[in-house]
C-alpha cells in the first residue's frame, strides 16, 4: 500500500521563511536582516544591537541601584532597632 503526499515531494516542504530561513512567518512578512544560509545575500543590520559600552553602563546603573537599596535597608533596620530598643 502506497501513500502519496499532495502538493509535491518532501524536498519541497519548508519549515521557515524562504528569505531568512527562520520559521514563524511568511516570506512577505520577513523582517529579519540576517540570513541563515551563508550562500545567500547577507545583510546585517547592527544599528539596534547593544554595544559593550551600553552593557557596561547598564551594569553600573544596576550596581548603583543595589548599593542604594542596601543603604535604604540598613537605614530601615537602624530605624526599627532604635525605635524598638530606645524609644
UniProtKB/TrEMBL annotation:
Query: What Pfam families does this protein's entry cite?
Result: zf-CCHC_3 (PF13917)
Name a GO molecular-function annotation. Answer: nucleic acid binding
The keyword Iron-sulfur appears for this protein? no
Query: This protein's superkingdom?
Result: Eukaryota
Keyword annotations: Metal-binding, Zinc, Zinc-finger
Q: Does the keyword Zinc-finger apply?
A: yes
Provide the CCHC-type domain boundaries.
17-32
Biological role: Possible splicing regulator involved in the control of cellular survival.
Question: What name is this protein filed under?
Answer: Protein SREK1IP1
Amino acid at each position: 500500500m502506497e501513500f502519496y503526499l499532495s502538493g509535491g515531494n518532501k524536498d519541497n516542504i519548508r519549515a521557515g521563511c524562504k528569505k531568512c530561513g527562520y520559521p514563524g512567518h511568511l516570506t512577505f512578512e520577513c523582517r529579519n536582516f540576517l540570513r541563515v544560509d551563508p550562500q545567500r545575500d547577507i545583510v546585517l543590520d547592527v544599528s539596534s544591537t547593544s554595544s559593550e559600552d551600553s552593557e557596561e553602563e547598564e551594569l553600573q546603573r544596576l550596581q548603583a541601584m543595589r548599593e542604594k537599596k542596601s543603604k535604604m535597608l540598613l537605614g530601615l533596620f537602624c530605624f526599627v532597632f532604635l525605635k524598638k530598643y530606645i524609644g
